[in-house]
Structures
1.
Amino acid sequence: MNEHKKPKISTLLYFVRPYPKFIAGMFLLIVASAVFEGANIAVLFGLLGTVLDPAVVSADGNFILSFFSGLIQAIPIQNKIVAISLFMIAITIVKSLLVFARQIFTYHAGYTIWYDVQKKIFEKYMNADYQYFLDHKQGEMIFRAYSAPSVMGGVLQYAGEALALTAQLVMVGIVLVSISPEVSGIVFLFGGVFYFLTNFIAKKVSYNLGRKRTEACEEQNNLLVEFISGIKQIKVFMSEKRWFAEYVLAMKSYFRPALKDRVWHEIPLNAVEIFAIVMLCGLIIVFKRIQGDAFLGQLSLLGTFAYAFYRFMPSLKKIGSLRIGILGNLPIVEALYSVARVKMKTIPDGDVCMGKFNEAIEFRDINFSYPGRTKTLENINFRVKRGEVTAFVGSSGSGKTTIMNLLLRVFAPSDGKILIDGRDIKDLKLESWLKNVGYVSQETFIFNASIEDNIVFGRGYDEKRVVEVCKLANAHEFIETFPEGYKTRVGERGLKLSGGQRQRLAIARAIYSSPQVLIMDEATSALDNVSEAKVREAIKKVSYDHTVILVAHRLSTVVHADQIMVLDQGRIVEKGTHEMLKTGSDIYSELYRGEKVSG
Ligand SMILES: Nc1ncnc2c1ncn2[C@@H]1O[C@H](COP(=O)(O)OP(=O)(O)O)[C@@H](O)[C@H]1O
Ligand SMILES: [Mg+2]
């Protein structure tokens, strides 16, 4: 990250391009307000000329000035000074209204795009592969979804403002040239030097400092997420200091570049004023020298330039400042661009809509490896009939969860076929398959809401059903003991509940929508023997009309299964019922004997 990169302004255009109406409206408002700004100067010149030297108003041959003096002549007021003043006031009012409209428009466009992009990133996350979440740090993902779009909205507003100010300067430049090309030349030279100075700082300094700041920001987010989600372990192992030290480090690597950026930022802004005043004084002295007493005749010219200068010095400064701001935040826009463009979904959805599952699930010659790993599953073949209980056992790391992952299409097999009622899972609309599935994972996810919210989990609320499934999952008894019952809030990740209680809620959630197929990955592993027996009973209750696929390491859970599959290093090494497998000298019988002795 230390190498210098070239800023890519095009990334900003990517976000603006879908809004041609904004672009067109912005363009019109920018041009219109700039034209009126130019007119303001031209009329001021006329006004000063009339006050000081009535001859000037004739504006000999100058197209712009004669256009305005023509307009002023048309005003039916005898006193020219009053006429010009009124005209000037009118122009200023119109100009201010246009500028105001342009500003509102810029904010509106900026906020709209910000809103849309924030939504778009969430939608991308929504559709992303599970793998994407495994490959990226949470803090970074949060930063890109939440903070980055707001920064981008701000950058767009800066950009709109900078364009408008530039157009204004161009317009005023045209008027100034028409009044006096020589004096304008000096002003332009000055403006040019200033432009290149700020441009240099923006590109070389602010942009690169901005990249460092972006990195530091993402790192801070990562550390906070890690710290909060791992708080218990961190406390017990007394590792707080490690996270604190890293956090302070990340903070420093944010604030140092930020301060440096501000310093660089202010240098040209302050220098510009000194240059300007030196130039103005120089002009007056030179004029006085050359023209002697005729100098008074040039006062309107000088006055106009002085006004233009003081009117536009802030604009010039602001453009410089905006450019630096845009480039300094561009790294965040670039990060957002890479998220918006990257393909997060690689497992395609099928288009066959399946109804109720009613026959069998079959794995045919399935091979699978996780990205960057050697073979995780090899030549897996099995068939699960509707209404049956199928159990997977095997040592940790043997691939049990991986089989469930393939079944849930969180991952897709490298080769081989998974058939659901005879149709390849990849042809099915995933939603229509998942509607048939209830799933309890190895690590439960309980979110910080009420117990009933956790069971309903975003599906239609049915109070009776909630109680029913909690009774089935043997959760009803402990929920009843809470003063607030089903309305009890369970804390972040359900940490106000015991492991076994969380597990039982997860089971209740899985059966809430009366799924046809129940997939349980070590659903009872966190339970004590008594609650395990209860859940086992619950599984038995629901499995009369459910197809159950379960992973268990306690054999008591699997003895009644219709078929048991023993996995070892990614392969199915034994298949059969408990009765068939318990005798013999293989893995299962060893497990069985081991458990009998220790149990
Ligand atoms: N997302 C993943 N990326 C890479 N490797 C993984 C991933 N998940 C699991 N593995 C590896 O795959 C193997 C099987 O894991 P898993 O199916 O979870 O085993 P278990 O039988 O304990 O459920 C293990 O060696 C594990 O390290
Ligand atoms: Mg597992």
Note: The domain at 10-341 is CATH 1.20.1560.10 (ABC transporter transmembrane region fold).
2.
Amino acid sequence: MGKLYFKEPVNKNIERNDGFGEIRKDGRTHYGIDYDSPAGTEIRASERGKVVRASFVPKDGNYGYTVIIDHTPEASDNERHIYTLYAHLSSLNVSCGDMVSQEQAIGLSGNTGTASFYRNTGRQFHLHFEVIDTRESGKMNWNSEGGTGYNGHVNRVNPDGYFGNPDLEVNGTVGDHPISEQYLEEILDRMDLKLDEEFRLQIMVDGKNVGCFGNGNETIEMKIRI
Ligand SMILES: [Zn+2]
């Protein structure tokens, strides 16, 4: 069992302009939180996990450029999976299959997808954020072609019940062997690496992939045994 601890995907000074469960003018319910993030705001992973989708989503809500992270990548297909979804981005920093650490920048805020319909309303650029919790029903069928794995609002839950909740226990998360940032910085100092520009560091602990840092093209694998 591992613990998950979700954080909000943008800096504290960015306000919300639409909450979970609000009814839109067209009668549809809003199943996420909208953050009033200006163009180019860094969007950060709410918790560590595995990117299961990083592409344009034209259907299922017209999310535009979207990142979906599975925070339970080691849970079996039949076990509970918890995902977060980040929509309307202008650019993506991650690819499908990447392991990401908590608060890693995964993309920049934009207005792709339906967000462009809000032109001239002052809320064109925003982050639409969702938490999708399958509870006992197993893994979602994400794919790169347009399917976003859920049926209507099913499994999309209020993120406020997840932020900072210390009691979210799930099977086999990558959070089993956390590495402190300070320890990582020490290691990187010794290695004299410039991660963002040139390298990407993939960290394995006891054979488990626990996260990656940096966005460079060259990947270095660090294997640690505890
Ligand atoms: Zn929204």
Note: The first helix runs from residue 181 to 191.
3.
Amino acid sequence: MSLDHRSLATRLNGLIWLEVCNGCTQCSLRCAAGTQASRAEWEAIRRYVAQLSASEREAFEQTLKQSKQQSLGDGIEVTLCRFLDRKTNLCTIYPVRPLVCRLMGHVEWLPCPIHKIEHPMPRAAALEILEVYAQTERHSFEEWEQIAPLLDGVADSRT
Ligand code: SF4
Ligand code: SF4
């Protein structure tokens, strides 16, 4: 199975009803720093950012500058994902979010916290995808930023 971003997304779309999550923010506190992406997924994110309009790009860059620190009480503080907009609690790269984000709520080991998804994707299909995905080069967003910076080296639609 090819694991470029488009084929992966197509395969997932055929297995699970991803639209149920569109616009929902109820699990946004699970969007933690350190989320991993494959090279193909990171390149898809870079292309997505490069095609944003000037106003969208401006808003995106403001999101990156937001503090991602979140107190959970009892002195516990977590760092949330750099792509989470703290004003809306929405993902700013939603159409190109990586596999782990797409699986949230749709596999039995990452259940939907509000029980909106009654039927997770078949375990065998999820494991088949993960088995192949696990063989790809993966890094956290923070590591990819060092390897191939998001806002550098990709054509900017504003120019
Ligand atoms: S997994 Fe559940 S809580 Fe998270 S976005 Fe989907 S429906 Fe909302
Ligand atoms: S990429 Fe989007 S969906 Fe994934 S952890 Fe970050 S904000 Fe959440």
Note: The helical segments are 5-15, 39-50, 54-65, 99-103, 123-133, 141-147.
